[in-house]
Amino acid sequence: MTALLQIEDVTAGYTSDIDILRGVSVTVPPGSIRGLIGLNGAGKSTVMKTACGFLTPRRGRVRFDGEEITGIATHRLLRRGISLIPQESSLFPHLSVEDNLRLPLRAARRAGLSSDDALERTLERFPEIHGKLRADAGSLSGGQQKMVEFAKAHMLRPRLCLIDEPSIGLSPKIAGEVFGWIRQFADEGMAILLVDHNIRKVIELSDHTYVLTLGEITAEGPRSQFEGDMHEQVREWLGLNF
Length: 242
Known about the structure:
Order of helices and strands: EEEHEEHEHHHEHEHEEHH
Strand content: 15-25%
CATH class of the domain at 5-90 and 160-237: Alpha Beta
């Protein structure tokens, strides 16, 4: 299948003398969910930052829909149809929920996206937000803020959504809802690159999973490769006992 996102042999880091990623290659086809798992410090979030333009690799390149986007600023990638749901909140706490939802559309300036139409469509997907539109985003609970993060991404109708640790800090019930939203995004045709500490859930959701160890892809495969003996495989690859 033709790739929508291609991360090709990327080496990257935050200082000139330390490489966090060393020759990482990840492919995300249209409409697929690709998972990225690894221990803390393996470089998962660095992959995300490289894909969305926050970090320019020292070597290698990033392609989106066949065009090189290596190092292109994040706001320009929004206009191409790439959204990021970061691990930390990206909401403006003293702005209303509605303003937070509409703000990305102003930044993206994508043709054919009406703010009112996008809001109506997003509220159909996330009806619980309807009664919170006038509230300051900072007044919401952690789970409600995470819902607004997903709704904000949904407003843009992205072709690719990069989702970094969406369930961290959430109760099991809310985390289950979050994983449901990810499945719905994929069902709507979005391609997704997913990072989460819940390894089992990442493997369950993903069509194909990459294992990242100390900045290198050490294993990868389709969901079927992980089924049955997932416990033993992941424990061996990551050195985990769970």
